[in-house]
Amino acid sequence: MKERPTVFEVLQERGISRRSFIKFCAATATSLGLSGKAVQAFAQAVGSAPRPSVIWLSFQQCTGCSESLTRTYTPGIENLLLDVISLDYHETLQVAAGQQAEDAKAAAIAKGGYVLVVDGAIPSGAQEWWSVAGGVSNVGALKEAIGGAGLVVALGTCATFGGLPAAYPNPSNAKGVGDLMASDPSLAPALAKLVNLSGCPPIPDVISGTIALYLSLVSQGRTGELPTLLDELKRPKPYYGKTVHDTCPRLCHYIAGNFARSFDDAGARAGHCLYLLGCKGPETFNACTTVKWNEGKYFPMLAGHGCLGCSEPDFWDKKVTTTDPATKVKTFIGGTSFYAADAEDKVPLTPEATKCA
Ligand code: SF4
Ligand code: SF4
Ligand code: F3S
Q: 248-273 pLDDT, tens per residue?
């Protein structure tokens, strides 16, 4: 008897229609840049993969990444991720607690071949014991689980690059998973199976799409190809290969030189570019403008706010030189032009701008 049912078998067992699954695979395959027969092959490969076991470790984080996961919409987190995936350990979502939860984790680790998801940054060095669960430090928990993982997903900018916990002055000496692994010889070999999904939080459908991509590689015996699908920051190229600026609907205004000078001026109301208001879109690689948020409908620039660069390393500190928190927030959110409301209504519409949808 097989040890684990396939994804298809679990879908049938749970009464999830093949149609829903194909819809999910088609949407995911499109976001991965697949088309034609490759979409069918992708669905077949995902469906015939063994049901994955997932161990989810939460370190210095705000739970926003787990919140994001529960906003996956096609065919629904309850169907795809909580029913199909065997989520064997997740401190926030699991029913089990205490020893029962620890036993479930130990049993899953003993079986091996699981997907290890880590959210949150990891306190290190002299501060290693600043974050502890079940008498084990975060570094210790990572070491326990990493060896048997088939895939390690650092989820969210805290886990990928340190994020908010690592922002100046970084009191807990927080590190992202990759940095910690690179600095520890006992963890470094696992770097080959690390995938970073940055973002604060990451886009829900990028999470489910990446897991589906991994499952398709597993069932085809091609997991060795995974590193070739990643950028230099270990992020999947289909999702992080372009900047949010590249496909921003305000790009034609950027090209035409039409910029909003304050968040409520005539330019802002006309959908002009938010670059002068601090938008970090041109240097931020993410799929917000293509995969989008909220059931594929929205992203910050569509809602009238510039990109904060949340999927990039050191995004909190990157463009800010001051260490004064109040000034930092002011600069980060609005740039110096945030307060230049005197420029209101002085932004002429150019012929190019009128072509902007
Ligand atoms: Fe929270 Fe953002 Fe860190 Fe995720 S990446 S845990 S949403 S602060
Ligand atoms: Fe680029 Fe931002 Fe302007 Fe959009 S709003 S075109 S992302 S600078
Ligand atoms: Fe983050 Fe920028 Fe997208 S702030 S959510 S990467 S538009």
A: 999 999 999 999 998 889 999 999 99
